[in-house]
Amino acid sequence: MSQTVIGIFDYTSEAQEAVNYLVNNGFSRSDIDLSSRASETEGTSVSNDDDEDDNSIGGFFSNLFGSNDEAEKYTKVGRKGSIVTVHAKNDQEAESAAKILDNYGAIDVNERAEQYKSSTTASGLTGAVNTNEADSIKIIEEKMNVGKREVETGGVRLRSRIVEQAVHEDVRLRTERVRVARTNVNRPATEADLANFKDATIEMTEHAEVPVVAKEAFVTGEVSLEKEVQENNETVQGTVRKTEVDTENLTSQDNAITTKNSITGGSTTAGDDAGFYK
User: Where does this protein have compositionally biased stretches of type Polar residues (predicted)?
Assistant: First the structure.
């Protein structure tokens, strides 16, 4: 079943890197859409088509989620970022796409929506305020933890069966045959001959050897299964993110401009006015 995976990025460069990685790892480019705002370029002129582009974003998420809070939340965050949409063909492909988008810096939409809500509330109450109180930027750094888990990679099965094969053995056999031997004699009969001159019967039995087969089983070998364990070192590669803070010294002219904004309550949000290119 096809699924749609969406990743919203702060920077178009991150979104483009994610798209390139997806394409290089088996995803079809025709199944990937990249929509980005030109908010990364300083001095971008305001386009007259901003309202039309914003409506396009809202319509996209309304069609995807329906007209509810979820669609409104994604629309609000998507207007200020670059959107990568992956049309996955199955659950496994969708899960793989989601992991890749996360690895390349896709933002947490729920968290970002809450930040926008808090920022809007504070801005409406105080305007642009210049204060001497020390503000702080949280420096966040990701660390990659590599663990191990055991997976099944294959195996060996032993199965015994009985087979028959023809064998040949030579044996020498003895066979007896009785034959009648007649000898011609011409002599006068003796008294002994005359005493045996009567009916008589003589018998002789024949014998023959025949093969006799007997079987005896012998153990000629043993087959068993044993495990051979090998260990090897493998390098795991990944990407982690961290916060880098740039320091800029403000001139007296910059302070004067800031003071003017704080008096009039004016504020600028260049991200809201940047053009959206679909």
Answer: 36-47, 250-263
